[in-house]
């Protein structure tokens, strides 16, 4: 069994969710926080298949590497939004917090790789983000709203997959880490969705439905590459 980095519990103690909350029992923070995933499952149009979970467990180093890539990309995407849309206080504040948290996750996954003796390898991006962004409208503010909705789906799917992996992974510390991530990633999903609606006068339901269908198709259809957000593995 591989161990998480020694500083993992300290990092959990520094979780921004917990900073100003005097009521939290520090001993509690050392066990993964239970998160209600029902809003995530209701939001997503499909569930991860057993064949993806099986392939992910069989190819865990690849999934950990791609997870590291995902955390870095999540921070990078949020940083791009931070520079592009400077008019909204809410957006700036939420994005700043999100970047901080995604970079913390990135550091933690790097630590996990280091502990496991896993070298960094180059992995090309899968089809998932491209497949979603292809449907983004190209004029403002529609483009911004679509990127925020896409962000909500990526965060929700990440959460769903961390939960699925944590259930079966044969490494108690890694399972604990994936459960720990559920809290922040599920909040990221809610933040992206709330921002999308708050920055748009029109109802966004139609766009959410479109991206739900596209995302579900990317997850449920055969995929030649295995990645953290890939579809059904081709045997
Ligand atoms: Fe993250
Ligand atoms: Fe996130």
What is the CA-atom radius of gyration, in angstroms?
Answer: 17 Å
Give me the strand/helix succession: HHHHHHHHHHEE
Backbone shape:
globular
- How would you classify the helix and strand content by structural class? mainly alpha
User: CATH homologous superfamily name?
Assistant: Ferritin, core subunit, four-helix bundle
Provide a count of the helices. 10
Mean pLDDT value: 88
Low-confidence stretches: 1-29
Largest β sheet strand count, sense and barrel closure: 2 strands, parallel
Helix percentage range: 55-70%
| CATH fold-level assignment | Ferritin
CATH architecture field: Up-down Bundle
What is the terminal-to-terminal distance? 27 Å
Query: How many domain regions?
Result: 1
How many distinct beta strands?
A: 2
Beta strand %: under 5%
Question: Would you kindly provide a written description of the structure presented here, covering whatever features stand out?
Answer:
The chain is mostly helical and 235 residues long. The protein has helices spanning 8-13, 26-29, 38-43, 50-58, 60-84, 89-115, 128-133, 142-168, 172-198, 205-220; strands spanning 222-223, 232-233. It binds fe (ii) ion (2 copies). One fe (ii) ion binds next to helix 9. One fe (ii) ion binds at residues 74, 102, 155, 185, 188. InterPro entries: Ferritin-like, Ferritin-like_SF, tRNA-Hydrxlase_MiaE. Residues 1-21 are annotated as: Disordered. Residues 12-21 have a biased composition (Acidic residues). This is tRNA-(Ms[2]io[6]A)-hydroxylase.
Topology:
Elements lengths: L7 H6 L12 H4 L8 H6 L6 H9 L1 H25 L4 H27 L12 H6 L8 H27 L3 H27 L6 H16 L1 E2 L8 E2 L2
Parallel strand pairs: 1-2
């Amino acid at each position: 069994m591989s161990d998480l980095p020694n500083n993992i519990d300290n990092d959990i103690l520094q979780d921004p969710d917990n900073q100003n909350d005097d009521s939290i029992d520090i001993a509690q923070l050392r066990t993964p926080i239970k998160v209600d995933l029902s809003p995530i499952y209701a939001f997503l149009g499909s569930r991860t298949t057993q064949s993806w979970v099986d392939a992910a467990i069989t190819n865990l180093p690849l999934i950990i590497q791609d997870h590291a890539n995902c955390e870095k990309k999540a921070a990078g995407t949020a940083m791009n939004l931070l520079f592009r849309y400077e008019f909204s206080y809410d957006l700036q504040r939420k994005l700043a917090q999100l970047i901080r948290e995604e970079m913390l996750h990135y550091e933690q996954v790097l630590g996990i790789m280091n502990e496991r003796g896993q070298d960094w390898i180059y992995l090309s991006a899968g089809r998932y983000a491209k497949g979603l962004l292809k449907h983004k409208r190209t004029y403002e503010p529609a483009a911004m709203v679509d990127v925020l909705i896409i962000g909500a789906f990526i965060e929700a799917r990440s959460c769903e997959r961390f939960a699925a992996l944590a259930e079966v992974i044969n490494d108690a510390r890694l399972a604990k880490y994936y459960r720990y991530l559920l809290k922040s990633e599920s909040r990221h999903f809610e933040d992206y969705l709330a921002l999308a609606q708050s920055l748009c006068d029109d109802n966004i339901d139609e766009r959410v439905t479109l991206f739900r269908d596209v995302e579900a198709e990317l997850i449920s259809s055969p995929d030649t590459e295995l990645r953290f957000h890939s579809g059904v593995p081709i045997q």
